[in-house]
Fold this protein.
Amino acid sequence: MEKDLHKELKKYFGFSQFKGLQEVVIKSILDKKNTFVIMPTGGGKSLCYQLPALVQEGTAIVVSPLIALMKNQVDAIRGVSAHYGIAHVLNSSLNKTEINIVKTDIVNGITKLLYVAPESLTKEEYVDFLKSVKVSFVAIDEAHCISEWGHDFRPEYRNLRSIIQRIGNVPVIGLTATATPKVQEDILKSLGIPDANTFKASFNRPNLYYEVRPKTKNVDADIIRFIKQNTGKSGIVYCLSRKKVEELSQALQVNGISTVPYHAGLDAKTRTKHQDMFLMEDVDVVVATIAFGMGIDKPDVRYVIHHDIPKSLESYYQETGRAGRDGGEGHCLAFYSYKDIEKLEKFMSGKPVAEQEIGNALLQEMVAYAETSISRRKFLLHYFGEEFDEIDGEGADMDDNVRFPKKKFEAQNEAKLVLQTVLATKEKYKAKELVNTLIGKVTALIKSHKTDELSCFGKGSEKDDRFWMAIIRQLLVSKYLMKDIETYGVIRLSKEGKEFIKSPHSFQIAEDHTYDVGTDDSIISSSKGGGTTDDVLMAMLKDLRKKVAKKLEVPPYAVFQDPSLEDMTIKYPITIDELVNVHGVGDSKARKFGQEFIALIKKYVEENDITRPDDLIVKTTGANSSLKLYIIQNIDRKLPLDDLADAKGMQMPDFIKELEQIVYSGTKLNIKYWLEDIFDEDQLEELHDYFIDAETDDIETALKEFGGDYDEEELRLFRIKFISEVAN
């Protein structure tokens, strides 16, 4: 049989060797044994059930959660056989005639693989039909969907066991690419196959480099910079929301990166087109929600970036697993801020309590991964129940924490205190309540257990909750503590933990990064103080602005506003193109006033030997460029401003803000027709005289000056006309 298997493998798939555990899994299936396969993405999971189905009598039923995935697999199988009917899909997208063709092919013994959605199996007519034909086995792909502990809980998967029993006494094969010990137990129980032969491939992907960076306000610029440093390579950027996908995709395009967006809000035709463009290398980057990637078999994805931290380590592992499938380099870069976690927690708060608890537990694992100071690979593999030697293991140095270790400190006493507290509170608390006990915070749960009366209560109050969380996480990873599987999240002492209390020894942990960064507003840090303004240059630019304004007989603010000058001292633009990327400077303004400013900056940079972030200037998208066009065109047609605001569903103050942005970046807007309806000639003259002599264009100052003669809206509208005429 062994020789035959290799022959069949060559005949159908063109391979001469099996990969990893494929052969032993296939033998288990051919021996009619219930089988459970845990194999990471890219490990050749689908071949494990495809080959036995092709060589056995009867039809194998493959339950799969995604129509797109089924279609891909059916097309692939049809490609290896002379019979079109060798594989079929049975789902809601078929009409009566198509369903009859599928049934006929199965009855005639042509169909070897029938792909069904779990929902289809709940239909009586389908179950009755399948009972009447020979079924070789039932394979459940993406089996983690069965488990409420998985990251993609689908209730219809929970009923599979009873449906399979009705079809007949056939072997059951469960397959998943991600499963923690808890999820594995849940899958076997739900499918009613506790005796299944279980095969687990290693989850280690030694060619992937794991890195987590703090997420600042300028995360988009950081991503653009990373992609530009990897020009020409294929990559995926994951975002949690469709809106962010659209915004980021636009930002990348503006910065000369070939990219397409992908999310469930796009119609099927566009999604397919964008996916194909990525596969065919018409674009380098796809910016996507998690709707993208299932069944993507592109071997040379060189990086996967997470703009937002995923909801679980399963999702993270699966998404990063799309990098480097060919064994070549794969960079997995995630941006992390605790604020994102809080957002996800808030989002979960509307769900049933049981679901919330699971969701929060999964999120906490994600936080622990992002904040850990130990080898990320060790952490990840430990989560999936696999040991890893962080010194000699394959790929040990492919990790930011290993290459750039954080500072360590001795925490023997703190570790002992945590372990003693777990013991004293009778191993009944989850991490959060343990921390509350240590810092002495009274909660309803602590009160009900009278924990606040114990001597350990408040014993660690000189340190904050995040410190103790870090210690607990390290103790879990070091196996002194463990999480109870039945009551998920409850922390218990391990044998090693009890030993540690009796005879404590050195326990070093690294100082955690502080990840709540987000105050730096600059796009690029420079050698002049990490993205803060250069005061010397600022003074020089102000002098120049005064000189230019005097020559043109306009107020200084009409040349460039202060925020624009500040941005110049951060970005050091030395060409007109670079100047256009400065805050509040449009194309026309840059060309009209820019020459002298860039000459001054260039000279300053050379004289002071400044490292300029020249290749990293990030263009903003002008995300509202369609609105800008709409405003300019309709003001040219002299349409009433309030009608324009209404048509866009905007309040007048917001609409005026848009007009200001257009004018301040150097574009002319002639709103004289509108102002002539509001003001008489004398008023127009009075306002003009005020603004031409004013030191500042600040509206508050103007309001005081006119003592209530004009309201804020009127003054802002006149200022738009004034800037447009004198500066643009």
Confidence is low (pLDDT under 50) at residues 513-531. The two ends are 83 Å apart (CA to CA).
